[in-house]
Write a structure and sequence with these properties.
Blueprint (H helix, E strand, L loop, with lengths): L4 H5 L21 E2 L18 E5 L27 H13 L2 E5 L8 H4 L4 E5 L8 H12 L3 E5 L10 H6 L5 E14 L13 E11 L7 E7 L21 E8 L2 E6 L16 H16 L7
Parallel strand pairs: 2-3, 2-4, 4-5, 5-10
Antiparallel strand pairs: 1-9, 6-7, 6-8, 8-9, 9-10
């Protein structure tokens, strides 16, 4: 079934047949791991190629891997310290998808503009980075079958918007452990973002504790808390999540696809500077981007 953007904006979109029982009472949308929660309205034609929009605006603390704030507009000049955005642009070049980037909220202000992209990535955004038009456009875009990729501090964004919390899988950043090495465990072998990874791999991060904790999602990777030499207790006292401490997961949400990871804090993860396990992080991220865009099977 194909739907026009005009019908979408007029609110004429309905849920797929049979998906009503999959509705979430907390967020009022169809969400989870059942593909009936995906709305395939035919808005994305593979013949047009694949394109990702990276959004990294911050309205609070700014992670070092983002570097200096970007100028206005789409694809402003990058500085040497904008290492994470540069890395994603390079990943697109090496893996067959185009990448645009911005920190200008006006670039997210219409669903029509967002529908140029197969997925939108929130890359370590912080606090309230969207105005009302951008919030509306993002929701319309996801409902039209768009993909969403949330990386690291995307979980510290839009705290007061319940729909966005649901997009993250019913999860939000609470606090984190010390930045330290740990062991990531992949969960399952089917999903494209984990199928080529070792079962256990070393990585360094500030390991996020989550309140609320993700539900109705497919967990793809978790951290083995017993490998964290400095412990998992966060700065606000969160004790960690024990044996089930997720770091990456996926879900269908309100018609779209969402692939999510709390990983990516270390600047070295985005550069050529050596960091143990960074090749697996990169591989994991590329698989997640491709699946959210529809280049590969999603959330298997």
């Amino acid at each position: 079934m194909r739907i026009t953007l005009a019908a979408l904006l007029l609110g004429l979109v309905v849920s797929p047949v049979g998906a009503t029982e999959l509705g979430d009472p907390d967020y009022g949308v169809c969400r989870g791991t059942d593909s009936r929660c995906y709305h395939d309205w035919g808005n994305f034609d593979p013949a047009d190629g694949y394109r990702l929009l990276v959004y990294s605006r911050t309205a609070g603390p700014r992670h070092a891997h983002l570097g200096t704030p970007l100028g206005p507009g789409l694809n402003p000049p990058l500085n040497d310290d904008n290492v994470a955005v540069k890395a994603v642009v390079g990943l697109g070049r090496d893996n067959g998808f185009a990448v645009d980037y911005t920190e200008d909220v006006a670039q997210l202000g219409s669903a029509g503009r967002l529908l140029r992209y197969n997925a939108v990535m929130f890359l370590s955004t912080t606090r309230d980075t969207l105005d009302d038009p951008a919030q509306t456009a993002l929701r319309q875009y996801v409902r039209a079958g768009g993909g969403f990729v949330g990386v690291h501090n995307a979980f510290g964004t839009e705290y007061n918007w319940p729909w966005y919390e649901g997009l993250l899988g019913n999860a939000n950043f609470y606090d984190h452990s010390a930045h330290q090495p740990g062991v990531v465990e992949t969960v399952g072998r089917r999903d494209v973002s984990v199928q080529e990874l070792p079962h256990r791999w070393n990585f360094s991060d500030e390991w996020y504790n989550l309140v609320p904790y993700p539900t109705r999602v497919r967990v793809l990777a978790k951290v083995d808390e017993s490998t964290l030499a400095r412990g998992v207790r966060g700065s606000l006292g969160h004790p960690g999540h024990g044996r089930e401490h997720p770091v990456s997961w996926c879900q269908y949400y309100d018609g779209g696809r969402a692939w999510l990871t709390t990983l990516g804090h270390d600047v070295k993860a985005w550069t050529d500077e050596p960091l143990e396990g960074d090749q697996y992080f990169t591989q994991h991220l590329v698989g997640g981007i491709k699946s959210a865009m529809g280049m590969a099977p999603f959330c298997r």
